[in-house]
Write a structure and sequence with these properties.
By secondary structure, the chain is an alpha/beta fold. Helices cover 41% and strands 14% of the residues. The protein is built from 13 helices and 13 strands. α6 links the parallel β5 (136-140) and β6 (190-196).
């Protein structure tokens, strides 16, 4: 039960690493993990030690010595696209868990090139160099790889026509999924596609609310922290009032991915929240937390913008426009509801009850990254 993991220094990847160590050292259900870490201003080992010692690590890690953890981890220095077939062939593992990727949601030509290179091209390279010893490839995609859909989507993406996306990132993940599935059929390699939705801090196990990076919906408190004092006029926010964000805790995502690793029959899983949180619900709370009471939700992008609105629509409003202003992507969620029941968790995964705790935590931490 050995595995090659990419993306271990990311939000989801690092929590997969934590869950792996728990399974390897406490539950004894897996063995060793090989992880690709590139050198930055510090060495790959120093980066790994930052992750293992970070305040965002789960409390169960306190019962594991660093020496024991390192005994279950072997570092492969470099980028994923620098790996060779010979280097992977030397590893005694039969599964690759590919979690690395670029999650930039901007809609520019430069971003389109970046996400194609770091999502599609890197996945293609990894597939091309797989040795015969690898018989399973697990791809961590996104729950938004379905693009824009009018009807609810199932876990099987082939049941749906996918033609339009909110940004190049979604398209790059969809194309990568197609690549992985075709490769699996052509080479008789078992594949699994796991699709996390929008990820927030920890909500299942302490330390609660922690995350090594604050992005996506955390952009709202970041924006307001910087600019709320400049607000004077009415703030008109273009949203679809019947829609919301689908947010899942990072520890739930990691546990579900490890569960899928241990249960290969789960070939496609949308790791989503059965209960999205409405835009008008969470935005109202965040705005009022920063002293903004003079706001209204509008059904079309407003004209004659005031200075604060101009600032919003040129920055985070531009990035999230197609996530908050059109009907949201909805999921059948039958499979994930069953997993939530097996894990003995509350159906909404604690997101509604703890949304402002997540926001308050990000403010307390001053939105600072840790090991990413």
């Amino acid at each position: 039960m050995n595995c090659l993991l990419t993306g271990a220094t990311g939000i989801v990847g690092s929590h997969i690493l934590f869950e792996w160590l728990k399974n390897a050292l406490i539950e004894k259900s897996v063995n060793k993990i090989y992880t690709v870490i590139r050198e930055t201003s510090i060495t790959p080992k120093e980066r790994l030690l930052q992750i293992l010692n970070d305040n965002a690590r789960p409390d169960f890690m306190n019962n594991l010595s660093i020496e024991d953890c390192l005994s279950k981890i072997e570092i492969i220095s470099g980028d994923v696209d620098s790996l060779s077939k010979e280097s992977i062939a030397k590893l005694p593992c039969d599964t690759v868990l590919h979690c690395a990727g670029n999650t930039n949601l901007q809609h520019t030509d430069i971003t389109a090139e970046e996400v194609k290179k770091e999502n599609y091209n890197v996945t293609q390279h990894l597939l091309q160099i797989l040795p015969r010893s690898v018989n399973r490839f697990i791809y961590v995609s996104t729950a938004f790889s379905f693009g824009i859909q009018e009807n609810k989507v199932s876990d099987n993406i082939d049941n749906h026509s996918v033609t339009s996306f909110r940004n190049p990132y979604e398209g790059s993940k969809y194309e990568s999924e197609k690549l992985v599935r075709k490769f699996g059929v052509d080479k008789s390699i078992h594949t699994q596609i796991l699709r996390p939705s929008i990820v927030c801090g920890r909500l299942l196990e302490a330390p609660f609310f922690t995350t090594p990076k604050f992005d996506v919906f955390y952009s709202w408190p970041i924006f307001l922290h910087r600019y709320a004092k400049k607000h004077t006029d009415t703030f008109r926010i273009w949203i679809d009032k019947t829609s919301g964000l689908n947010i899942v805790p990072v520890d739930f995502v990691a546990k579900t991915i490890l569960h899928a690793y241990l249960n290969p029959k789960l070939e496609e899983v949308n790791i989503v929240n059965p209960k999205p949180i409405l835009h008008q619900e969470y935005l109202s709370k965040v705005l009022r937390a920063f002293g903004i009471e003079n706001f209204e939700y509008v059904s079309e992008k407003p004209l004659n913008l005031n200075l604060f609105e101009e600032l919003y629509y040129k920055t985070i409003g531009q990035v999230f426009e197609k996530y908050v202003s059109i009907p949201d992507l909805r999921y059948e969620a039958t499979q994930i509801k069953q997993l939530i029941k097996e894990f003995n968790l509350e159906l909404s995964l604690g997101v509604h009850q703890n949304f402002m705790n997540l926001i308050d935590h990000s403010i307390e931490k001053k939105f600072k990254k840790s090991y990413i």
